[in-house]
Request: fold
Amino acid sequence: MNKVAKIILGVTGLGIVSLTGLYAYKLMKDPYDDEYMEKLKLIVEFREIYKLKDSLNSWSIFVDIPDEVEEDKWDRQEIMPQIQFYENRKMYTMNVNGSDVRLLFTREEIGGLPEIKGFSFPVRSPDGRYVATTIQPKTFNYSCVIYDLKTRQSKVMVNGRCINYDWDENSKGVYFVGGKSWNEPFYFNVQSGLLKPLKPHADDLVGLSYSQNLYGGMRTPDGTKLIRFVKDDLLENNQDIKKEVLFELPSMSYIGTQDYFPKDCINGVRVSVNKKFFTCIGNGKNHYSFDNPKKVISNNSEDLIIMADKWLNLDEGIIRRLKTPGDITPLETIDYLYFDNRTKSRINKYSIYFPEGIIDTDLSEYFPPMPSHEAYDNALNILVNKDVK
Reply:
């Protein structure tokens, strides 16, 4: 094996720190300890010796999954954001720094394989009690379910595949898009157990058909309106038609058509974890704010935003940290990767959950700091002089 290949394995296989308890880097007297410097040397060697800059600027976090894992209490006071991940036919939750792994449910309890990819992933209610997710009871057979962590029971909301789970702030119900067509908006009331298709009283919407010409759906961040998208073929044949149609909630009274999102959002949008920002699906290098949906606020990546200009959640199971004006560091990004400590395999099927009260938490305090110029130069100096007697 050549040396570059060994370095690649080292960068993805060396844990920066043992994360078996609450560990906040901001509380450390010396954040650049020996383990940190060993990891940093691998990145510096990759960048400076082999001139492969910005490749594998990653920190590996090894996660200990107990044989007998404790069930997560739905009303437990979480101390930091959670990573919900699927391993060993079980859905777990852990602190975002990789500590305190707990069981959410097993594949058998929920009735199938939870889907965790793209736009379909488990979404926990703000109060922590319920998890809404799409499952596969059998191959190519989908159901949209609610799992109650208090009663340890699941309920099928609708058959089919569902996305865009969006909980009420009071956790009384969840909005989503899916069903047999994978494309219709619904609201499920967890208290009554009733499913309500979201449709206006009349199909004709001043020249548009609700059932034939629209697709998808999402709530505005204030929860007062539902936005649906006009199908591409209709837009291609009529340049005068606006891209989105708005309805009042919960009445579904027709408001009108509007170019609510930028023109790049022809295929819909991906909304940030805190519901303040979005990117355009398929053309999402620009970040926008719901406060001013047409104005570009940054340009970084088309992946899901955790916190604009600071943190991204990449589909490959990577949390990416971006350099900010306050970071004095030679690196532009660092990627954090989770590994099962027993098997050393990547944990790449997960979703992020921010409990009530910490939705705008900056993740910086739970991860290693960006390396300072001094730490970076010290690592380079060790590498350059390592063979000098």
In short: Helices lie at 3-13, 34-49, 107-110, 210-213, 232-237, 373-384.
